[in-house]
Design a protein that fits this description.
globular; TIM Barrel; 13 helices; 13 strands; eight-stranded parallel β-sheet; 359 residues; alpha/beta; three-stranded antiparallel β-sheet
């Protein structure tokens, strides 16, 4: 599976807001996106003091839902580390269950492996790779990129999987760096590290992923937040041009981490995160529960801003427009409004990349 430099590689948690946003994309946008999907950990029931689901209950719906929501488009599939060696009720490893079911449905997916995985998991990955003959995606962290032994570790992994570099998609996941600025200095450090990766030009694809969005630090009523990862990417394209031009990825409007907090104690605010050319516009209000009508004002704020696209730009934009005009009631759930933000973000970034690489 070849990921073109103009294709967008968002890292998405496989939760309702995210997979519903994916399913709402039109065919043109789907073709422009290769999502890296992370199957989340099983949620904990703090009241019952146990996991909310068994491994089987958590994993069993995934293959059918993936095919229904994403179809036969290209995708990369990763797992939260708590699921690494989990098994279904039948005793089958979850990775084998998932890829066996996807194979039956002719859905196209490539497994993701990182250098910190156990030998047992990597052995399971190898079995999937042998069956599907689609290669593998290797996802490395910023700390690993800066390590002195990265090339040898990658070489050992690829050799064990009986692959060559042309069968490997390399994703460099910077996560959420402490700072991105100055962009030229950060880019230079990354480029120097990337240059040291043996045979970097031979990998099937190279993608740089990062995020700078920290919603927890944004106070009411919100405001504009610079999309530092987008600014860094544009600098990297210039600095890496003679080596190879990478694809771009981010975490959409989410954070890399999975929350494991007791939601009974949490009081999340009502908000909309709307992606502009170089910033996010965040409209943030009081606690969402019991104040769902606030979303009408948030929608009016977004639709009246200089960053507003148009009502038919994406599914999310349609919801914002209809809510601001009173066509639909300002209610829904937090997942609904995450879907709205993710939907717009996916279309916006896909369009940006297409225009950026066409210029």
């Amino acid at each position: 599976m070849l990921i073109a430099k103009s294709q967008y590689v968002p890292i998405l948690k496989w939760r309702q807001g995210e997979y519903q946003a994916l399913s709402r994309l039109d065919d043109q946008d789907k073709n422009a996106i290769v999502p890296l999907l992370v199957i989340p950990p099983i949620e904990y029931d703090f009241e019952e003091k146990r996991l909310k689901k068994t491994v089987h209950e958590h994993i069993e719906p995934f293959p059918k839902r993936f095919c229904k929501k994403w179809g036969q488009e290209k995708a990369l599939i990763d797992f939260h580390n708590s699921l690494e060696n989990a098994v279904m009720d039948s005793g089958a490893k979850i990775i084998h269950f998932i890829f066996d079911e996807l194979r039956k449905a002719s859905c196209t997916a490539i497994p993701v492996v990182n250098l910190s995985r156990t030998e047992e998991f990597i052995k399971d990955i190898k079995q999937v790779v042998i069956k599907d003959k689609r290669g593998v995606c290797t996802r490395i962290k910023l700390s690993e990129l800066m390590g002195i032994d990265l090339s040898s570790r990658l070489q050992a992994l690829i050799q064990y999987l009986d692959l060559d570099y042309s069968q490997v998609d390399l994703v460099i996941d910077l996560g959420k760096p402490d700072t991105f600025e100055p962009y030229p200095a950060f880019s230079k450090a990354l480029v120097n590290a990337i240059k040291k990766i043996a045979s970097i030009e031979q990998y099937r694809s190279l993608t740089i992923v990062a995020t700078s969005l920290q919603l927890a630090t944004i106070r009411r009523p919100g405001g504009e937040v610079i999309r530092h990862e987008w600014q860094l990417y544009k600098q990297l394209v210039t600095d890496l041009e003679k080596i190879r031009i990478p694809s771009f990825g981010d975490y959409t409007i989410e954070t890399p981490e999975f929350s494991n907090q007791d939601m009974r104690l949490m009081k999340p605010s009502g908000k909309i995160v709307y992606t502009g050319n170089d910033v996010w516009l965040v409209s943030k209000g009081p606690v969402f529960r019991g104040n769902e009508s606030q979303m009408n004002d948030h929608c009016k704020s977004i639709a009246g801003s200089v960053h507003w696209c148009k009502s038919d730009y994406s599914y999310g934009d349609k919801i914002i427009s209809d809510t601001s005009l009173g066509i639909i009631k300002a209610s829904g759930s937090l997942s609904t409004w995450k879907q709205v933000g993710v939907s717009h973000h996916l279309v916006k970034v896909a369009e940006q990349l297409s225009m950026f690489h066409a210029s």
